[in-house]
# Entry
Amino acid sequence: SQWGEENLQALSIQEGEDVTMNCSYKTYTTVVQWYRQKSGKGPAQLILIRSNEREKRSGRLRATLDTSSQSSSLSITGTLATDTAVYFCATDAESNYNVLYFGSGTKLTVEP
Amino acid sequence: ETAVFQTPNYHVTQVGNEVSFNCKQTLGHDTMYWYKQDSKKLLKIMFSYNNKQLIVNETVPRRFSPQSSDKAHLNLRIKSVEPEDSAVYLCASSSNNERLFFGHGTKLSVL
# Structure
């Protein structure tokens, strides 16, 4: 497996709080992508961070990448109830750059 | 706005039956994918097609077969479904693997 964690994590917070979700990966990758999947929909990309970047921001989102520890995080500031979703990180793999491998995901519930 | 279209949305069938799912993308992408998502939300790559040629098959059982008529279409056929095939099947497309665009998925229930 590409991933260190195989089980869906669950977080429940109140609207307005900040949250950070983490993932770790096992093999070399050129990019880490973060996706969000809302109920009944397919995943949609939120942010992409490359192996030569340590941080990337997009609106309320902030992604970090630490290639030495092979880990990435996604932070959301000032969460809204509409941020409720499952969040995935995804990477390519050294053996197959044409395919994205997804981590197990974090189910985030933001209570209004 | 959705640009990857999957049909049907749901399908209920019995063990041993054959099913087919359709996927069409209107983004002009060269690569299309099928992912399987289980009840724990785990997403696993099944197939990847680049311009009508299969470029990866992640040890999927032989009863699964992708079918592509052109680069905008990638269908999935399951011959003789089994209970463990119950899942959501997600189709995606991309131009360079740096962003995948997913359809809404087809939920398969095998009784």
